[in-house]
Amino acid sequence: MIQVGKKNSRQRIGILGAGQLALMLAQASAALDLEVVCAGRPGDCAGQVAEVRNVDLNDAEAVAAFAQGMDLVTVESENIHADVLQGLNLYPNAGAIGIAQERLLEKRFFRDCGVATAPFVAVDSLIDLHQGIREIGRPAILKTRRLGYDGKGQVRLHQSEEAAAAWASVGEAPCILEGVIGFDAEVSLIAARARSGETVFYPLVENYHREGILRVSSAPFLHEDLQQKAERHMTILLKRLNYVGILAVEFFVANGNLLANEMAPRVHNSGHWTIEGSATSQFENHLRAISGRELGSTESRPTVMLNCIGSMPPEAETAAFPGLFRHDYGKEARPGRKVGHLTFAAAEQAAIMEWEQRLQTR
Ligand code: AMP
Predict the structure, then answer these.
(1) If you take atom 18 of ligand 1, which residue's CA is the nearest one?
(2) Residue 101 is assigned to a structural domain of this protein
(3) Ligand 1 binding site (Cβ under 6 Å of any ligand atom)
(4) What does the alpha-carbon distance between residue 42 and residue 45 come to, in Å, rounded to a whole number?
(5) Same domain as 172, residue 198
(6) Which residue segment(s) compose the domain that 167 sits in?
(7) Ligand 1 atom 8: residue of nearest CA
(8) pLDDT tens digits for range 148-187
(9) With contact defined as beta carbons under 8 Å apart, do 255 and 104 qualify?
(10) pTM
(11) How far apart are CA 167 and CA 59, in angstroms?
């Protein structure tokens, strides 16, 4: 029966950002009968599957006008200034994003929640930096408090004499100085929290970085004790933040303990494997959470994801591997840029090794 005049009841979700995370969120929205509209720039890759409106994400008025036409908004990046996010019907909330976008607030928040971190001090001047080096020792890492990602805005210090050059190289921006952790592994935990407070966790993932960029994620990082510890930490963080949506927390594993490094208030690169590896992907669960739905099962099978950095391998080459799932974000090739990823069932060991070499992930 055709219902004349029935209002379209599909929820409309606005995503601030239109890169690959927005692209994969938009792809996942199809299963949920949601409408996704992105705020970004013409030519951004989410435009392949969703409407992208030209919005300057630094312009609070433009963002507010975009959000007006949406039932709710979410972000694909933590780097949108917290001032721009005020007053929006936003999931996760602006307070949580504000903490995640500032390393000093973030590290203090972890500590306040009883979650251990690397030793750190605030650095606002060269004098602070010298003092910090004395306190923390060497080697240490100087990180800008804002806008650092994929190893950008970071300098390692081996000698005190390097302090002035390091301070200049971060543009004398507010920083933190962190002790270097001799970790056994880097892992991340991804969780989804619904509006009702219902929370689900994915298995811990082991992550391998090179030149500060994530290259490989391998799930699960099988360690019952650490899985439980990470979930306990995550539960506290989510509650304290009054969080709704996907939250990813990256930890160092050192001497059998977890040290939190950073959190991402959004879907995360180390969760891309869930598209093929889990009953419900991180993208679908984020949309479920923020749109007020129940969460989907995170039951998962062992899966490995390899990032394609700089350029995608030719299709003819990936097609020769039937167990490989190819995700091409449709982005222009550029050195250091994440342009796609490949996913394999973990049992495809030979293919994974082959592609690790081809993509130079180690
Ligand atoms: P971040 O931007 O903080 O995620 O740092 C990027 C990468 O640098 C991490 O994934 C680690 O591989 C490395 N790293 C960052 N901080 C530390 C630290 N305190 N000790 C050892 N390695 C670190």
Answers:
(1) 180
(2) no
(3) 118, 141, 148, 151, 178, 180-181, 186, 209, 212, 261-262
(4) 9
(5) no
(6) 119-179
(7) 212
(8) 665 667 899 998 889 999 999 999 999 999 999 999 999 9
(9) no
(10) 0.94
(11) 30
